[in-house]
UniProtKB/TrEMBL annotation:
Single biological process term from Gene Ontology: negative regulation of ethylene-activated signaling pathway
Domain of life where this protein originates: Eukaryota
InterPro entries linked: ETO1-like, SKP1/BTB/POZ_sf, TPR-like_helical_dom_sf, TPR_rpt
Key word Transmembrane present: no
Ranges in coiled-coil conformation: none
Record-given protein name: Ethylene-overproduction protein 1
Keyword annotations of the record: TPR repeat
A Pfam match: TPR_8
Classification via SMART domains: TPR
TPR repeats (start-end): 759-792
Pathway it works in: Protein modification; protein ubiquitination
Lineage: Eukaryota, Viridiplantae, Streptophyta, Embryophyta, Tracheophyta
Protein source organism: Anisodus tanguticus
Amino acid sequence: MEGCKGPQVYAFNPSGKTTTNGYGGGGGGEKFLHLQERVNAVRSKSNRNYQPLQLKDNVKPVVLSEDLASYGLPQTDLIEPHIESCLKSVNFVETLADVYRRMDGCPQFEISGMYLEQCAIFRGLSDPKLFRKCLKSGREHAVDVHSKVVLSAWLRFDRREDELIGVSAMDCCGRSIECWRSSLVSGYNPESATDPCTCHQRPVQNEVFVGDEECSTSFSHGDEEEDDYDMSFCIGDEEIRCRRFNIASLSRPFEAMLYDDFMESRREKINFTQNGISAKGMKAAEMFSRTRSVESFDPDIVLELLSLANKFCCNEMKFACDSYLASLVSDMDSAMLLIEHGLEETAYVLVAACLQVLLRELPNSMHNPNVSRLFCSSEGKDRLASAGHASFLLYYFITQTAMEEDMKSNTTVMLLERLGECSNVGWQKQLAFHQLGCVMLERKEYKDAQKWFEAAVEAGHVYSLAGIARAKYKRGHMYMAYKLMNSLISDCTPSGWMYQERSLYCHGKEKTMDLSTATELDPTLSYPYKYRAVTMVEENRIESAISEINKIIGFKISPDCLELRAWFLIALEDYEGALRDVRALLTLDPNYVMLHGKLQSDKLVELLRHTVQQRNQADCWMQLYDRWSSVDDIGSLAVVHHMLANDPGKSLLLFRHSLLLLRLNSHGAAMRSLREARNQATSEHERLVYEGWISYDTGYREEAISKAEESISIQRSFEAFFLKAYVLSETNSDSEASLYVIKLLEEALRCPSDGLRKGQALSNLASIYVDVDKLDNAIDCYMNALTIKHTRAHQGLARVYHLKNQRKSAYDEMTKLIEKASYNASAYEKRSEYCDREMAQSDLRMATKLDPLRTYPYRYRAAVLMDDHKESEAISELTKVIAFKPDLHLLHLRAAFHDSMGDPISTIRDCEAALCLDSSHADTLELYSKARQRSNEQQST
């Protein structure tokens, strides 16, 4: 379905031309040389002693360029790639296959741990849905309370619900898988984890202590006859009458004391003053011996009973106290009050309940010194371990939150050290030691970084060799770093990151060749593009530099690449283009600091804003329509950012913001904008729509539909109907469901909205009409969408013409889209379906050039090669893209090719890798079964 959240990446005009200031002429280059000379003079004094720019109402462009240049121009020796802080395999397909094989025969109590390993593997991939899916599966298959508590908190953190106004950390979201109450129930029941939660939306507030009120143990013994009591415990001046048999039933130690050959067994009165329990507490123990309940006692009395239960091994009483106290934990105050008691008495459920609150309040809870001390210190880890709550899982979660907040902090280092101490198996040690190396590298503690990277390599993490090389390089051992990477390239199947890393340790042609090879093997690496672009700038070829950086921005936008392009545009005095890029950059990272970490991006926006034509909100809407029509998503993003600056807190604009970011594959930034839209919503029905999109984007489709229906019940709106239609269209594909989706979209179109959204709805409606074979209705919808400048409708219209056997018309429609769009790899890809093989190959080459992440061109070329009986070349074509984009369909296709060539071993490996990504993929399961059967037959013969 052609949806508003499609995966296509549309980027800014690759030529770099704008409607105001062009790049042409040599003036820009001469200006840049002048700036470079000025910067060199400034550097001799010290780049660090810069003066903050003063904002003026009328900023002269030349003065602005020179002032910005004083911060230091881009230089090749000031940029370098980061060592990724995740598990990275030199043979990713084999790693996936190995994990799937081990999961296939894994005992049920170990399955949750296997999903955690998958989480660690998928953490480094660009698709967050794979990580979240594994996290959910890990929670569904969790057996013990500890794992349930941590995984539930992690799922909640992954959605960043703490950013939603009015949502408490302990609010129940309605899903059993994340409910804090269900997390405290031990046992293995994966089916129940997906059920809706039946507990109240708001937790019951409990008072932890009830002052000096009379203890509920001040009771009369009711129907109990005085003769039933055959002994007493004396505490101070008080005597607590008890039944010997009842007290003895509490534990084996009590039974031995009261019935075996001890003095107490022959006494009616036993002095119990020195056992650390009050008379009230002992009365409660006597009552528990009869009722087996602690519900009527005050919390402080229950704490006494817990201590008594520990001293005398009263397991039943300890469990009752543990569970009751755990039910009282509802916020940070009660958690901090009770966790010390829980740790002291090793109360497993109580500590779990307190731990749950602390984890759900991350990262803020780590700012509490007591919490920080508990998690960061070895003593704190040991105390948690004694209560059954120190694990690799726990520290893996906490370290991830700490690294996101501040990678260089002492807290992060200490947490990673605890993570290493909790590591038991190879992959856990690899991850912990490698991340410690990355953190030390960021802290510029290169000797320690090298030590930890070496430990990771010893544990089996080959990628950490790149960390060792980088640490050696930073310590002045450049040749040793080069030798290490050279040896790695010789010993392993070469990868793009290997050549990228080696390029740091050589010069001239050798460096250029390594960077070219890195891009050829992995075109998604941004450093080679950045280095080549900056080199071109140093050679006074700014237009070429912009073209080079556009190559990566075209399919993978990132703040650092947008910053570079903004720099280049400033040098050419194209301030409007630079302002666009800085605005787009801020949507990805609102706290990004530009110019070598010296100037806040929003400050630069203010400086650049005074050099361009000022636009009001109406002008911005017109500009947004133009950008949207020309399929310029980065330009659209910048316009919406401008509109938000004029009208901050406008929920509708924030929602549009999130849709654009999703189209650009910036999922984290998109969700942040969507959460802000929800917070700024001025009506209940609007808020429900945004909550519905949040639910959909985090994998809860039923909840998204429910939110849409609730919104419609309050007020009929375009967005509510559209949300429900969109989710249903992806959930059900039968004809009856399609007809219902059509009705929903028709209802949406009857509601007020702007042309941008109605164009999308018309396009979606047309797509459903195609699915139910109503082609003429589809054509009408696409034509109406084009009338309101929804240019992407050309693609849908082309599909209809193709279905009507009008291939020439289909081809022409895609040509119109290519001509109108500033940059459109998907249009070239789609047009290839409507022409002969030679022209198709040409269009697909262009699609790959513009966006190497699109998989269809590789699959098509591989299929053509197979048709021409060039099996090795076909597999090589797929292998090339799988190396940097391990895609389910690519792996399945390569497995099928191996199967047709009679290679069951390779078929099985690729099937297992594909099933690791999606264990329910029916075609792969069928192929896998056949390949295993064939392999068994070959072995038996």
